[in-house]
Amino acid sequence: MSQLLPCPQCHSEFTYAVDTLMICPECYYEWNQEALTEDTYSAKVLDSNGNELHDGDTIIVIKDLPVKGAPKPIKSGTRVKNIRLTDGDHNIDCKIEGFGSMSLKSEFVKKA
To answer: For the whole model, what pTM was predicted?
Structure first.
């Protein structure tokens, strides 16, 4: 049996096959697994407002973020230039003035 891919619409892991169709029980989306390209599964990184982020974008932090080992948090409204997108939980790598290299979650930033 081949590896079942997650739903391209809601990214649910609980998909199943019926004949040639794949079905998602959470959003009821149906698709043909052979017809999909790898671009369908490429993860888009979205900011807190739903805007898609790209490498090199400038972002603004929307809430105070505590930093382990630092005496002060990253303040809301801090502008961060030239970000890099990565895979994982903290999907933004950047350099913040006064803090150095950091990894941020996209849910705590907005595109400038």
So the answer is: 0.63
pLDDT tens digits for range 53-71: 999 999 999 999 999 988 9
Collapsing DSSP states into helix, strand and coil, what is residue 104?
A: strand
Query: 1-42 architecture in CATH?
Result: Single Sheet (2.20)
- CATH tag for 59-111 (out of 3.40.50.620, 1.10.1780.10, 1.10.287.1040, 2.30.30.40): 2.30.30.40
Find all residues with CB under 8 Å of 67, minimum gap 6, and list them: 73, 74, 99, 102
Q: How far is CA 29 from the centre of its chain?
A: 21
Place of tokens 């993860």: 43
**What is the C-alpha to C-alpha distance for residues 93 and 85, in angstroms, rounded to an integer?**
6
Angstrom CA distances, 64 to 29, 68, 81, stand at 38, 13, 18
pLDDT in tens, 5-35: 888 888 888 899 888 888 999 888 888 877 6
Domain extent listing, the chain: 1-42, 59-111
